[in-house]
Write a structure and sequence with these properties.
CATH architecture of the largest domain: Orthogonal Bundle
Number of domains: 2
CATH class of the largest domain: Mainly Alpha
Mean pLDDT: 81
CATH superfamily of the largest domain: Winged helix-like DNA-binding domain superfamily/Winged helix DNA-binding domain
Strand content: 5-15%
Structural class: mainly alpha
Distance between the termini: 27 Å
Radius of gyration: 24 Å
Length: 143
């Protein structure tokens, strides 16, 4: 699978690694040298450099060099694209969850028997799940 190169994908790729998230967390307290960032991790310096490269390519940090010292600083505006994407999708997700909650409440409130019981004229648990899926606008895959 090819690696996505769009800015949003680079941000989420950078955030997907716990070592990189820990480095960002450390940088939230202020700029740090590469050595300070590497200290808590049992990884090689080249691996640290690769992690920092991913963070820099994603626009989440800025690396500078002063003499023999290399330091890194957080670029909080680097998260703006990801924050905007999450905010745009949060509304739709919340709406779907609210509709699912309503559908589940209707399913459990309309029937006196516990879910999954069968009898003359009653639905099975599978039918209930299909109805819940339909109520949130998603089609259920055939099994």
């Amino acid at each position: 699978m090819p690696i996505a190169t769009d800015p949003l994908s680079r941000i989420f790729f950078a955030l997907a690694d716990p070592t990189r998230r820990a480095m960002l967390e450390r940088l939230s307290a202020g700029a740090a040298t590469v050595g300070e960032l590497a200290e808590p991790f049992p990884i090689s310096r080249p691996a640290v450099s690769q992690h920092l490269g991913v963070l820099e390519d994603a626009g989440l940090i800025e690396r500078t060099r002063q003499g023999q010292w290399r330091s890194c600083a957080l670029r909080p505006e680097g998260l703006d694209d990801a924050e905007r994407w999450v905010a745009e999708h949060r509304t739709a997700w919340q709406s779907r969850f609210d509709r699912l909650d309503d559908a589940l409440a209707n399913l459990t409130g309309d029937r006196g028997a516990p879910a999954g019981t069968t009898g003359p004229g009653s639905a099975t648990a599978t039918d209930d799940a299909d109805q819940a899926d339909a109520s949130v606008g998603e089609q259920k895959e055939e099994r």
